[in-house]
# Entry
Amino acid sequence: MSSHYDPTKAISSSAAYPEVVEHPHHEDDATFKKKVRKTTILLSVITVIELAIGLILYAMGHGANHLVVLMFKGAVCILTLAKAYYIVSIFMHLGDEIRNFIMTIIVPLLLFIWFIAAFLIDGNSYKNLRNDFDPYFKQTTTPVIHEVKKEPTTPEPGKQ
Amino acid sequence: MSHAAHIEHSAVGFDSHHDGDHGHHHKETFLTKYVFSQDHKMIAKQFLITGIIWAFIGGLFSVLFRLQLGFPDQSFPILETFFGQWAEGGKIKPDFYYALVTMHGTVLVFFVLTAGLSGTFANLLIPLQVGARDMASPLMNMLSYWFFFAASIVMLASLFIQTGPASGGWTAYPPLSALGQASIGSKAGMDMWIIGMALFIVSQLLAGLNYISTILNMRTKGMAMTRLPLTVWALFFTAVLGVLSFPVLLSGAVLLIFDRTLGTSFYLSDIFIAGEALPNEGGSAILYQHLFWFLGHPEVYIILLPAMGMVSEILSINSRKPIFGYMAMLGSMFAICILAFLVWAHHMFVTGLNPFLGSVFVLLTLLIAVPSAIKVFNWLTTLWRGSIRFTPAMLFAIGFVSLFISGGLTGIFLGNSTIDIHLHDTMFVVAHFHIVMGVASMFGMFAGIYHWFPKMYGRYMNNTLAYVHFWVTIVGAYLIFWPIHYQGLAGMPRRYLDKSQWVNFSQFHELDAMITIVTIIVFAVQLMFIFNFFYSIFKGRKVTTLNPWKATTLEWTTPINPGHGNWDGEIPEVHRWAYDYSKDGRDFIPQTEPVSENESTH
Amino acid sequence: MATTATTHKTKWWSGGKSPFNIEYGKVMMWYFLMSDAFTFGAFLISYGTIRFSQNFWPDPNHVFNAFPFAGHANLPLAFVSVMTFILIISSVTMVLAVHAGHKGDKAGVRKWLLWTILGGLMFLGCQAWEWWHMITAEHATLVDGQIQLLGQTTKVNPWGAAADPALIGDALKNTDADILAKLAYQVDHSVPVSQLVTQSKESLIATISQHDLKVGTPGPVAFGGFFYGITGFHGFHVFSGVIINIVMLIMTQKNVFERRGHYLMIEKAGLYWHFVDLVWVFVFLAFYLI
# Structure
C-alpha cells in the first residue's frame, strides 16, 4: 500500500502513529471552577501583600536599615516566584502534564540562576571599579544627602 | 469528548484517506517542488546550496584580506578593477579590510556553519533517521528557510551599499556598532547587519522548535531515545542550544538598535567623538559583551555539535564497528550543552570583568575539556582495530578528529585567565578558533556532504576529486593555522591591517606570505569541490543499491530517490540501536531487523 | 538518561507516540515560550546589570505615583496595581475559555474570549496612559544652574537625587519666565498659568519660594530606555496576544474548531496569553516593587 503524505493535515501528519495515546481526563466542572477561584484569590492576595511591602518600603523612607530593606525586597522576589508558580502550574496546566514534560521546562530554566548571578555580580563590580578608579564618576553619581528636610513627603532618593 | 479522542479520529481519517487515494500522486509544480517546498529534503538542499554560495563569498573575503596580510607592500591592480575606490591603487583600504574581516566572520559563523550546516543536516537527517514523514510542522520549516533567505538578501545587499557593510568585527561591539559617526562601516551597513541578524534569529528559532518537537514526538515505533543515531542526538542538543541562546542575542540586538536610533544609553557612556562629548551616560559596553557571548559561546557548540554527531556516525559506519561508548557520547554531549551556557565570560577576561568572577569562569571553562576528551577517546577507540574503509567522508571525519584535538588543546591555554591576558586578541586566538571551530566544522560538513550526497541526489560525488580535496585541505589547514599560533605567542595582534611597523614582527613577513599563498591554493581546491558538487548532481555516478554504505540507520531503507513522505507504504518499525556492526559474524544489522533469540547482547 | 521512565506501564520514550502525551503544536508552543522567557529574561537582567552598576537609581514609589483623573495626588503604585489586576483577571477568563473549549462549548469559548480581549485592550489603554503621562509630565529639575521642566524620555531622566536646596534660589533667577509660571502653578493651583505668565519674574519667584517646590536633578538615563523598552516589548506581546485572541474568536465564530472536532488551538493561544501575564509579574517586580 502506498501511503502518500498530505502536509495539509493539521495534526501529527508527519508521525507514523497518533502522538497522543492516553486520554487526559479533565476534572469535572465544579472542581475546576473551585480550583480557578482559589488560584485567583491566591494571586490577588499575594499581589496585595507585595503592594503592602512596597508601601512599607516607601513609608520607611530612605533612612531605613539596609538589611531590613533587603529582606523586604527578598520577600517580594519570593512572593513573585510563588505567583509565577501558580500561573504556570494552574493556569497554564503545567501541573497536569506528565513529570517528564515538566522537567523539560524546569531544568532549562535553572540556567537563569547563573545567568542572573554572573550578570549582576559583574554589574556591581563595574560600579566598584569605577568608584575606585574614576573619581569623577563617584563624585557626580553618588547622591548627596542635603541637610534641609522640610516635610516627610519631599521626594528623596531611593536607595539602590 | 476529550481532545485526545479527536486527534485519534483525525489520524484515522488520515489513514483512510490513504486507502482511498491508492497510488495517487500530488500535482507538484516547479514552484511547490523546488521553491516553496515543504519537503524537508528539499529544504535541506536549499539550505545547503545557499550555504555553499555564502561559503564561497566568505572564503573569498579571507583570500582578499590574506593578500593584504601576506603582501602589505604590494599592490594588486586587479583589486581596483573589481572593487574601485575600496582598493584604490590596487591596495586594500583600511575600511575595506575591516569590512572584509567582519563579514568573513559573520558569514562563516552564522550563514555557513549555523544555517548551512545544521540547517542542511537537521532537515535532511532528523525525519529520515527518526522515521517520520516530515518535520512536525513542514510549513514552519519552509518559513525557517525563507527567513534565512531574507536574512541572506539583507546581508548580501549590505555588501553593495555606498558606505559598505558592517565593519566593527563580527561581534559588533558597541560603541563602534552603536554610533553611526564612529566609522564608515557603522552607518547603514550596521543597520542592515542588525536587521539581517534579527531575521536570521527568527529563522533559527522556527527551525530549532521544529527540530526539537520532531525528535521528541515523531519517532517511529520502537525508536527509543537511546536507539537514536548520534547525529540526531547532536542535532537535538544543537537545537536546544539555539532555542535558549539566540533569544538573548535578539535582546542584545534590540537594545543596540535602540541605542542607534532612539538615543538611549544601554551600552554608551562617557564617549568623545572628534573631540565632542556625547550626551549618553550610564550605559555599559560590557553589558553588550555579556549578552553577545551568552549566545556567542553556545554558538560555538551550535556549530560543532552537528559535525560531532555526523563524524560519530560516519566513523562507526566506515570502521564497521559499533560506536564506542554510546551512552558516554550522549552524556558528554549533554554536559557540553549545559557547560556551553555557563562559560560565556571567558571571552571577556580582559574587559575589566571582575577577576573573582573570572576565576569561576576559568573553572567552568576548563571543565569542558572533560566531555570533549571523552568524545575524542571514544572516536579513537571506535577506529581502533576497525576494518576501516577510507571513503572521502571517512577521511574528512578522521580529519575532523585530528583538527578537534589540535584546536582543542590550545583552548586550554586560552581558558586560563592568566595566560589569556597575554594571548587575548592575538593571532593565537585566531588560530585556535579557526582550527577547532571553523575548519573542524567545515570538515564535519564535508564529511556529511560526501556521505549523504547519495541520499540527497541519488548519485555519488567524484571520488578522485574528493581525495584531492581532502588532502590539499587538511595539509593546507595545518599549514595556514599552525604557524599562526607562533605569531600569536609572539604577541602579534589580530585584526590589524599592517604590522610592518613593528620590528619584532619582521621575522614573520615571509611566513605571512607563505600562509597567504596556501590560503589561495586551499580556496582554489574548495572551488573544485563546488564544481564536483554541482557536476555530480547532474552527472555523478548513479546510486544503484538502497544502502550504498551498508549502514544500519533508517534513511537507507527509503527508496533511492524518496518522495515527499519518505517511505512508500508503512514507516518501518525499529528494534535495535543504530550501531550493530560486525555483530555475531554479520557485517551489519539494520535497525529495522527484530532481535533474534540467540543474539548476543552488547 | 531517561529512557525507561514508565507511568501507568506506558513506555513513554519507546517511540511511536509523544513521550509527553502532548501533540507537537503544544510542545512547540511551550518551548517557544521558554525561548521567549530568555528574551525577556535577558532584558530584565540587563536592566539589573545597569542598575547594579550605578550609585543611584530612582525610587519607583516616586516615579509611579500618578493616577488618571487624580491630578497631582501622590498615589504610589496605585495605578500599576489596577493594571496588574486587569491582567490577572484576563488570565482567569482565558482559563475559562480554554476550559469551555475542552468541553466543546462554543458559546462559552466566545464569551470568555471576548472578556479576555477586553481585558487585554484595557491593559494596553492603561499602559498608553502611563507612557503618555510619564513623557509629558513636567518635573522641576536642576540642570546647568537653572530649572527645567522634564518628562521621562529615552534621553532624559528627571528622577535623580533631590537638588541641593542652597542652589535653588540662584537657579530660579536663571530660569525663563514661562517655566517659572508653570512652576508657580505647580505649587499653587489658585491662579491659572495664563495669568501667571503676565506676572514679573520676581513675583513668580516669590510665589514659588513661599511653597515647597520639589526640585530634582537628572537621574540615570538608562532608566527610561529600559522602562520604555521592556514595558514596550511586553505591551507588544499583549498586543499580539489580543490579535491572536481575535483570530481565535473569528475562527470559533466561523465554526472552524467545531469542524476540526477540537479546540486545541485555543489552548495554545491560552498558553501564550498566560505567558504574557507571567512576564508582567516579573516586569512588575523589577520596575515597580524593588
About this structure: The two ends of chain B are 46 Å apart (CA to CA).
